[in-house]
Amino acid sequence: MGKIKQGILGGFSGKVANVVGGAWKGIDYMRALPTSVANPQTVPQLTQRQKFSVVMNFLQPLSEFLQTGFRNYANKMTGINAAMGYNIRNAVTGAYPNLTIDYPNALVSRGTLPAALNAAAAAGVAGTIVFTWDDNSGEIGASASDKTLLVVYNPAKHQAVTVNELAERADGTQTVTVPDSFSGDLVQTYLAFINEKGDDLASSRFAGAVTVV
Prior knowledge:
Layout: E1 3-4, E2 12-16, E3 19-24, E4 27-32, H1 43-59, H2 63-69, H3 79-90, E5 92-93, E6 100-101, E7 117-123, E8 128-134, E9 147-154, E10 159-168, E11 173-177, E12 186-194, E13 205-211
Antiparallel strand pairs: 1-2, 2-3, 3-4, 5-6, 7-8, 8-11, 9-10, 9-12, 12-13
Helix pairs in contact: 1-3
């Protein structure tokens, strides 16, 4: 029950119906209580939960790689948590209950180095993926010695192959070997760079969807 202060025109403290009264620093205030949610399973709530599930399913096999790929955005959080935040906002397509990862818009690395130019991937000899890109080390901030960060993600197997810091930006190509079990599967590929000091990265580029031979 609320109590009226300073007469009927004054403020009150306590609760009256769905209104709460009180005072803060000598100022009387009133605020409405939130209405109860009759159905917590609303479409927006279900959509957000499915977004979380879809993105987590995509990123979980990459959790160790993301410690590097999102290191500059993992402020008081893990790399996978930083990647979750970005990809939930930018890399989910469709409508509930048919949400999926928008692979070309997903990032597995994020940073300020110049990104790969004309990144592409194709099936090589059995069990290999060949990455190619143009050497853009002439761009401001890029270096010929920037090292590659490569990802081959297999949605069907819920597995990923990652390769860190072998080829350089100037090389323009690198071949990645994948498990024999990937044969016939459609994989999603990504290419990024990390500088020699290891303190800055390029945002990843989608290199394409490739069927492994």
